[in-house]
Design brief:
By secondary structure, the chain is α/β, with parallel strands linked by helices. The protein has 3 domains: 50 residues; 210 residues, Class I glutamine amidotransferase (GATase) domain (Rossmann fold), CATH 3.40.50.880; 106 residues, no CATH class. 46% of the residues lie in helices and 16% in strands. It has 15 helices and 9 strands. The strands form 2 sheets. A 7-stranded mixed β-sheet has the order 1-9-2-3-8-7-6. Strands 4-5 form a two-stranded antiparallel sheet. It starts with a helix and ends with a helix.
């Protein structure tokens, strides 16, 4: 096959893999992906709970999300009220045991489960209730059977319920129901309390503004002792996985991996270079010191580091003044100038030398913001002044 045919083959394979990734991502979003979002505080969709999360956060409550399974017990110890809204994966025995210990210590748990996400989930049976379909499904506002929530008062709770609670204890107090169908119960659990709902609608983005649903959530929050709030995202699939796990755990991730492999293989088969050819350097003479000085000066010039250049020139000048007579090169400007004028065999303007050394000290010191205090033009004038003074000292020597 010629090169053009090879390229067309690689492009075709890449397009095919891209199509597979798009189809897989679309089916995931239309199916299980959307299920994962129901009740998630990360989701802005109607069935998500992002509005509740932001509302409580803006009200000043410490709000966060629980993700990694390895930190479940630690996260509970840092939480006073936990929202578990439509969990999409089962609770393990260890997680349920940690919940029991947390409730015994005074935690408040709000659990809303419905549909196939709640049916068969161990947390419902563990809390004393099951779920069964409600025929027909109900949509509307219902009055709580007991005036339990009064700050502010909850007069009506809007629901869209297709499931009802099957209570293990018939004497359990039903606080909200549609006729004889229990929709919400609360019960003490150790020193804590559990609120169990067969309908997450009151806490969703779509349901929170309806009737007094927001005040229902508000009363539940204010009933917690420390009022540190958390939303369970671990059972919505947020397991704190790294990037490798995220990519290799999704169809689109494998499609991208295969596409990259096909692209590299295609380049190898077609003999194409991965970049432009690099010319072989020709042998030449060594560059002189002038080239190095010019390159270094260009770097410092572009960086605006006149303070570094001034410091190098100051050090060289002080050494030239001090070394022949055994003077201290780091002495104060006035002392070094006076000592040099006394030791030098020709007359020296000590005042002019003191001023020059002082100006160089100033130019070599960067400002508090790290910027030079003199510009390139001012530094050039200093160097010319120094050259003129040095010419006067050495005129006629040698």
């Amino acid at each position: 096959m010629n090169r053009r045919g090879d390229i067309l083959l690689v492009v075709g394979l890449l397009l095919a893999l891209l199509g597979i990734a798009v189809i897989a991502a679309g089916s995931n979003a239309a199916g299980g992906g959307q299920d994962q979002l129901q009740g998630s505080s990360l989701s802005p969709a109607p069935g998500g709970a992002l509005a509740l999360y932001r509302w409580l956060d803006e009200a000043g409550y410490p709000v966060r999300r629980v993700t990694g399974a390895d930190r479940w017990a630690d996260a509970l110890r840092e939480t006073d009220l936990l929202f578990v809204l439509n969990p999409q994966s089962n609770f393990t025995a260890a997680q349920l045991a940690a919940l029991d210990r947390w409730l015994d210590a005074g935690g408040v748990l709000v659990v809303a489960v419905e549909g196939t996400g709640g049916a068969g989930n161990p947390i419902t049976d563990h809390l004393g209730a099951g779920l069964s379909p409600l025929f027909p499904a109900v949509t509307g506002s219902f009055t709580p059977r007991e005036p339990l929530w009064t700050a502010p008062p909850v007069r009506q709770v809007a629901v869209q319920a297709g499931w009802q609670l099957d209570l293990h204890d018939p004497a359990a107090p039903v606080l909200l129901g549609a006729g004889a169908s229990p929709l919400l119960v609360t019960q003490a659990r150790g020193a804590g309390r559990v609120a169990l709902l067969s309908n997450a609608y009151p806490f969703t983005n779509a349901g929170l503004p309806a009737a007094d649903n927001r005040w229902l959530a508000w009363n539940l929050v204010t009933g917690a002792l420390g009022r540190r709030i958390a939303f369970d995202e671990l059972h919505h699939g947020s397991g704190g996985a790294d990037l490798r796990t995220l990519v290799t755990g999704q169809p689109w991730g494998w499609a991208l991996i295969y596409a990259a492999g096909v692209a590299v293989l295609g380049l190898l088969l077609t003999g194409r270079r991965l970049g432009p050819p690099v010319p072989v350097p020709t042998e030449g003479g060594r560059r002189g010191a002038v080239d190095y000085v010019a390159a270094l000066a260009g770097l410092f010039g572009r960086a605006g580091r006149t303070d570094w250049v001034a410091d190098q020139y100051r050090a060289e000048l002080r050494h030239a003044l001090a070394a022949p007579y055994g003077l201290a090169a780091d002495a104060p400007a006035a002392d070094l100038a006076a000592a040099f004028a006394a030791a030098h065999h020709r007359p020296v303007d000590a005042a002019a030398l003191t001023l020059l050394l002082t100006d160089l000290d100033h130019a070599a010191t960067p400002s508090p913001r790290g910027r030079p205090v003199v510009g390139a033009v001012a530094l050039l004038r200093l160097v010319r002044r120094a050259a003129a003074l040095r010419a006067d000292w050495t005129r006629g020597d040698g």
